[in-house]
Structure formats: C-alpha cells, structure tokens
Specification:
Keywords: Hydrolase
Number of domains: 2
InterPro entries: AB_hydrolase_1 (IPR000073), AB_hydrolase_fold (IPR029058), Carboxylesterase_BioH (IPR050228)
Strand content: 15-25%
GO molecular function, one term: hydrolase activity
CATH class of the largest domain: Alpha Beta
Strand order of the largest sheet: 1-2-3-5-4-6-7-11-12
Low-confidence stretches: 2-10
Distance between the termini: 24 Å
Order of helices and strands: EEEEHEHEHEEEEHHHHHHEHEHH
Pfam family, one: Abhydrolase_6
Helix content: 40-55%
CATH superfamily of the largest domain: Alpha/Beta hydrolase fold, catalytic domain
Structural class: alpha/beta
CATH topology of the largest domain: Rossmann fold
Shape: globular
Number of strands: 12
Largest sheet: 9 strands, mixed
Organism: Ktedonosporobacter rubrisoli
C-alpha cells in the first residue's frame, strides 16, 4: 500500500492510501486516526467526502478508512458521460484489496448501495471482517408480482428494469437531469413534480452532474446482482442493520428482509432520521457506529 498525500482533517491527519486490485486497477481511500479499523463504503450519488464529518468523529478512537468506491471512480470509467458500470463483484474486489493491504479484522460499514457492496464483501470473505454495519441497503427483492428494486420492476435476475432502461436512454440523449430525475422518483418514491425539478437542479451543479451516470451505473449493478438473501443467511458475523425512522417504506422493507435471514443481527432505528443521517446528524450516526464497533472489537481477537 502506497501513501499518496497528507492533509489536515477535523480531528487528525488524513492520508490518501492506494493499493492494487487483483485485476490491476488502482484502489484508493482516505485514512485518518489510529487504532482498530473501520472501513466505510459511501452511498450512491456521493463520494467518500460525504462521510468526512462522521469519519472525523470516529477517528478520535479508531483508524477510519473511507474507500473511494470503484463505481464512482471517474478515472476508471470508459464512458463517463453516458455510464459504464462495473459489477458489484468488481467493487467487492476493491474492498477486499484494501482490507488485505491494511490488515484484518476490519469493521465494515456500508450505506445504501454501499451497504449492498458491504454485504457482498462480508459474504465473499467473512474471515476478513470483525463484523458489519449496514445502513438501508439497496436490494433486489421478490414479491407476489415479481422481482423489484424500490420502484423498478425487473423481469428476471440479470435483466434490468424498464425504468432503468429509460434512464440510460436519457443519458444517451445528453439529458442527465432527466435521467437522475427518473432515478430519484424510482429510488426515493418521490412524485414526478418533485423528482424532476430536483434532477434538473442536480444536473446544473458540476460536482453532481458528473456523478449522475455513476448513479445510473450503480442502480444497474444492483439490479443485475439479483436476489442474494440466501448468501447473507450464511453470514456468521455480528451485523447491525441501521435504518431511519422517517425512511421510505421500500427502504425499511429491504432492511427487514436482510435482518430476517442474518444469524447474528441487531437492528437500530435512527430516531427522527431518514436515509441521510450522515449529512443531517453525523454526530448521531458516528455515536451509533462507535457503540457497535466497541462491542465488536471487544469480541474480536
């Protein structure tokens, strides 16, 4: 693992670290603090910077790694304007490469689609982790009318839904605002008169505009992953499922589906919060993570 740069954060020095995945692609993360390791996987339509405040609080006691998720690495995109998705398995390879570089056991925290990547990493290499904390993962689930991920209905495993195809078509036409408006409506369950203006606004902000194809890629990767509850049922690690009191019903359904199959699970409700506690109340979320980490690392060798 190679240190790339140092800079000052809120609580301690932040170091940029890099290593290499099995396929030769670079793996990058921001690291701060000392002690047992917490690895954070950020949610969709975000970068690792979205967890800066949470990490700064945790770094007073732990070594905190914020991975730059492969799906949101513009330098690894072959078509950054229209999207070029990597698979969830390729994202997991980046997680495991970083864990190997820094050493185990690691407490893995994942939020939204980052939570799905975290679940897959835990399932792929359980011995690499002391435990996991998952904040409202994005999952394909079965229902009486077929497979779905939030508001998008999917024909079968490995096939993407009609809504996602429309988003991809909008990107191809050079309409990122339309694409992310549709995505917001599907994922968050917002009505069109709210989601569409929000999408148009996001497309006007350069930092968000460049992430829109990444978010569509992320949704496609989640849909192609398919139903994975059986794999999660074999995880013999302590896992805490975190959810917001005010989160959409679809998010709570996904949390419940995972919690029902995990052998060693705890559920924590974030009172007064929704899907974005890391932004609205980073202190509260950091306290929840720290409490879980303390218990997990006391059990770990």
């Amino acid at each position: 693992m190679v240190p790339m740069e140092n800079r000052k954060g809120n609580a301690s020095e932040i170091t940029r670290l890099s290593t290499t995945a099995a396929d030769g692609t670079s793996v990058c993360a921001d690291v701060e603090g000392e002690g047992r390791i917490i690895l954070i996987l950020h949610p969709g339509m975000n970068t690792s910077k979205s967890y800066t405040q949470v990490a700064a609080r945790l770094a007073r006691r732990y070594r905190v790694i914020r991975l730059h998720r492969r799906q949101y690495r513009l330098d690894l995109k072959t078509a950054p304007l229209i999207g070029s998705p990597c698979t969830v398995a390729e994202e997991v390879d980046h997680v495991l490469a970083m864990v190997k570089a820094v050493g185990a056991p690691v407490l893995l925290f994942g939020h939204s689609s980052g939570g799905t990547v975290a679940l897959e990493a835990l399932a792929a290499s359980p011995s690499s982790f002391a435990g996991g904390m998952i904040y409202e993962p994005a999952l394909v689930l079965k229902s009486t009318d077929g497979l779905h991920l939030s508001g998008d209905r999917i024909e079968s495993n490995g096939e993407v839904g009609e809504e996602l195809l429309r988003m991809r078509q909008a990107l191809m036409k050079g309409q990122p605002g339309t694409a992310i408006g549709m995505c917001t409506r599907v994922i968050a369950g917002l009505p069109s008169f709210v989601a569409n203006p929000a999408g148009a606004l996001a497309a006007l902000i350069p930092a968000y505009r460049q992430l829109i194809p990444c978010q569509i890629d992320d949704l496609e990767a989640m849909e192609r992953l398919g139903v994975r509850l059986d794999a999660y049922s074999k995880l013999n690690l302590p896992v805490t499922m975190v959810y917001g009191e005010r989160s959409p019903d679809e998010n709570l359904e996904m949390v419940a589906a995972v919690a029902e199959v995990l052998p060693r699970v705890e559920r924590i409700e974030l009172r007064g919060q929704g899907h974005t506690c890391h932004v609205r109340d980073p202190k509260k979320l950091a306290e929840v993570i720290e409490t879980f980490a303390k218990g997990v690392f006391e059990e770990a060798p």
